[in-house]
Amino acid sequence: MITLYSMPGSSATAPRIALDEAGAEYSMIQVERDEAGRNTAPDGYDALNPMGTVPTLVDGELVVTEAAACCLYIAEKYPDAALVPATGSDDWATTLRWLTLLTNTAQASFLRWYYPDQYTTDEAGLAPIQEASVAELARVADVLAAQIGDGPFLIGTQFTVVDGFLAMLTGWSGDLGAGSRWSDNPTLEAHYNAVAQRPAAGAALVAEGFPAANVS
Ligand SMILES: N[C@@H](CCC(=O)N[C@@H](CS)C(=O)NCC(=O)O)C(=O)O
To answer: What does the alpha-carbon distance between residue 198 and residue 207 come to, in Å, rounded to a whole number?
Structure first.
């Protein structure tokens, strides 16, 4: 059975949505934080995930880290759930395109906003790093909204693991405050609601501390 190592509302949300959409049986182990905000991972966790971050997915002997990789692994393991388009199709390539943008540009930018101290040793540099992240995230939001168009999902009417990933990031963007929230964009708000209205994905989002559909 699969085990997902997680922290509430973390990058593990995207693979959790994928597991729930697939109807997979799995267990979750929470990686806690100490008073200083650092992970206090269970013994042996660093051997599973040398970066010390969440998520980590363990399936028998297999260990998968990186939220995007976990999502793709789940999609391939549960083909009946159709959580990615057929391998090699145009939609599959497009799905990889947006998942890659979400993880290596958007998610990375959010992590710089959340943890600016990991990107500079200069106290005065913290605020500028966050400001640059907010600006980059605004650009990405516009690009994503243009891709979604009438949607409701990133590649039209098929829900994929990338939509769960995007809903997670839209949930995070609430922390950026009014004016910078991705849900301030009507297209991204409609996208979030379309994901949150799905019984499995919606329940996972709420369980991770994100808003239910149509909560403003
Ligand atoms: N690229 C990694 C990023 C993982 C990551 O940075 N996760 C955060 C939580 S969202 C984390 O575990 N941070 C370490 C900490 O909070 O101590 C992934 O996608 O899995």
So the answer is: 14
